Amino acid sequence: MSTIVLLTLTGLGLAALYFLVASGLSLVFGLADVLNFAHGLFLSVGAYATWWAAGNLPGAGPSGFGFVLAVAFGVAAGAVVGMAVELVMIRPLYSRTIEQVLVTVGLSLAGVALLQATWGADPRPFPRPDWTQRVTSVLGAKVPNSGILLILAAALVLAALLGFLRYTRYGLVIRAGVENREMVTALGIDVRKAFTLVFAIGGAAAALAGALGGVYFGSVSPSQGGSLLIFAFIVVVIGGMGSVVGSAYAAVAVGLLQQFVNYYGTSGAGDICVVALLAIVLLLRPQGIAGRAATT
């Protein structure tokens, strides 16, 4: 029983990490129709900004309020980078899909190279509060506190995103734009401002994933964002493009499937099963779990 509880909660922790990356990615594609392969860079920026702030920003540190301040700095850095990418590199390329892919892939590679040139290619120890390195007993299972932190953070982000999308003016514009961007534009609403806001939200969520991922893994490296981005794309496709709730469902399915199959099967079998799940969803429901079928 304790093994099942441990695998479930660690799987949900991994799912929370995937969701934090995938939520912004899903919104960006759903509204702006942009496949942002540089989204993993936002995660890396958040992780390294948090790591730097914990050791250099006045008042910040690896414990207590200092750690919260360091994470806030990392999240702000991710949001700023997301806005800058949209304004400078993506905005001139709307409706030019091939150029978008080339630019975002190039930006991702350049960002990783810049991080490696600045801080080296080797993983660096991540500053973590002491309590995140301990465990909590849940129904006989000793669950890492870092995983519980991820679950709580993802739940708060999901609630905040749903509240923003449902009860604020810009949230309603984003929801309407995801459903029918042409109609929103015809009503005289400038969706370009919403594009920038969505990139900022996506950058902030990915940066938070980078900061808490550093706590979860205990280290930070330039390639960390790229490896997590692969599973984030899988989560977005399974959940349905543009659906935050769908991304949450898909993240839970992917995280639990990976944990249970890797434990009871051979190493790496969980990743194969995730790809198989993706293939099944694409064959049976191409629009994803919570996506809407395309109409003609």
TrEMBL record:
Q: Provide this UniProt record's keywords sorted from A to Z.
A: Amino-acid transport, Cell membrane, Membrane, Transmembrane, Transmembrane helix, Transport
InterPro entries under this entry?
A: ABC_transp_permease (IPR001851), BCAA_transport_permease (IPR052157)
Please indicate which superkingdom the organism of origin belongs to: Bacteria
UniProt topology in membrane: Multi-pass membrane protein
Report TM segments.
6-27, 34-53, 65-89, 101-121, 147-165, 194-217, 229-256, 263-284
Protein localization: Cell membrane
Assign the protein's first listed, main location to one coarse class. membrane
Note one Pfam family from the annotation. Answer: BPD_transp_2
Recorded hits in PANTHER family, A to Z, give: ABC TRANSPORTER ATP-BINDING PROTEIN, BRANCHED-CHAIN AMINO ACID TRANSPORT SYSTEM PERMEASE PROTEIN LIVH
For this chain, the family text in UniProt reads: Belongs to the binding-protein-dependent transport system permease family. LivHM subfamily.
What is the name of the protein in this document? Branched-chain amino acid ABC transporter permease
Organism, as annotated: Plantactinospora mayteni
